[in-house]
Design goal:
The chain is α/β, with parallel strands linked by helices. About 40% of the residues lie in helices and about 15% in strands. A 6-stranded parallel β-sheet has the order 1-11-8-7-5-6. A 3-stranded parallel β-sheet has the order 3-2-4, sandwiched between helices. Helix 1 runs parallel beside helix 10, helix 6 crosses helix 7 and helix 6 crosses helix 10.
Length: about 290
């Protein structure tokens, strides 16, 4: 029987740690503050932003939700970010992705003060991750994956790990974290141009699937006893469901799970960890900024 890694339970434990940290910081005279900026009215983004704001309120973190119209210009958005950089009540800044197509997202990220970049996407924080400088911020989803592996008792030292996907949001930072001193995994980053992707994955003790393709990883891709972390969350049309769709990961869970030592479900695996680690990063920013 495979062990199902319960992301909801681990995220709840992380949030309880955050609650204690908020109390300590507040007692010292610092109320942690997070600002989330949303441009446009993308429904999924609105759900994510609302969830982040509610979590802040629950933990006692000062929260600012800034909603801007779809037609907001690059210059207007940059001005909002610059004002937040200068606001001492705000320790963390997050601009919800994806913005409207006319916005240069990379330029906006570079505008964020790296000391407040709780998403961990600013070039300075990417460099700190590569250099294993602990003062930087690690992107929330990969950080959450590492916490899940730790809580599940998965040994990364000397393990062969395959990361499927090479995005700056998940794939590349995930590889850095797995190969870092202390984690000590041997890491392969695979992607759409990799030759014999199933064969590469079959060599892995740990598989991190982060490609955004529904149920791409099937049983024949995974060796017996592997650990599988499924980062994907995809909507698949399903007439049998009341909503007309179902959520699935990048892994064909039902057929892969019986082969695994441990696996994350979708939903309820990696997803809840992302917001929990965002709160952790916000508190780290508050401590470092003072």
């Amino acid at each position: 029987m495979s062990k199902v890694i319960d992301g909801k339970a681990v995220a709840a434990a992380v949030l309880e740690e955050c609650r204690s940290e908020v109390a300590e910081l507040t007692a010292q005279g610092t109320t942690p503050g997070l600002a989330v900026v949303l441009v446009g009215s993308d429904p999924a983004s609105q759900v994510y932003v609302g969830s982040k704001a509610r979590t802040c309120v629950d933990l006692g973190i000062h929260s600012r939700k800034i909603e801007l119209p779809e037609e907001t210009t690059q210059e207007e958005l940059v001005k909002v970010v610059e004002d937040l950089n200068a606001d001492p009540a705000i320790h963390g800044i997050l601009v919800q992705s994806p913005p409207p197509k006319h916005i240069d997202e990379e330029a906006v990220i570079r505008t964020i003060d790296p000391r407040k970049d709780v998403d961990g996407f600013h070039p300075e924080n990417v460099a700190k991750l590569a250099l294993e400088d602990s003062s930087g911020f690690v992107p929330c989803t990969p950080a959450g994956c590492m916490r899940l592996l730790k809580e599940a008792g998965v040994e990364t030292k000397g393990a062969n790990a395959v990361v499927i996907g090479r995005s700056m949001i998940v794939g590349k930072p995930m590889a850095f974290l797995l190969m870092a001193k202390g984690s000590d995994a041997t890491v392969t980053v695979a992607h759409s141009r990799s030759k014999d992707l199933p064969g590469i994955c079959r060599q892995a003790d740990i598989v991190i699937a982060a490609v955004g393709r529904p149920e791409m990883v099937t049983a024949e891709w995974v060796k017996d006893g592997a650990v599988v972390i499924d980062v994907g969350i995809n909507r698949v049309d399903d007439a049998t469901k009341k909503r007309g769709y179902r959520l699935t990961g990048d892994v064909a869970y039902e057929e892969v799970a019986p082969k695994c030592a441990a696996i994350t479900p979708v939903p309820g695996g990696v997803g809840p960890m992302t917001i929990a680690m965002l709160m952790k990063n916000t508190l780290k920013a508050a401590r470092q900024l003072g």
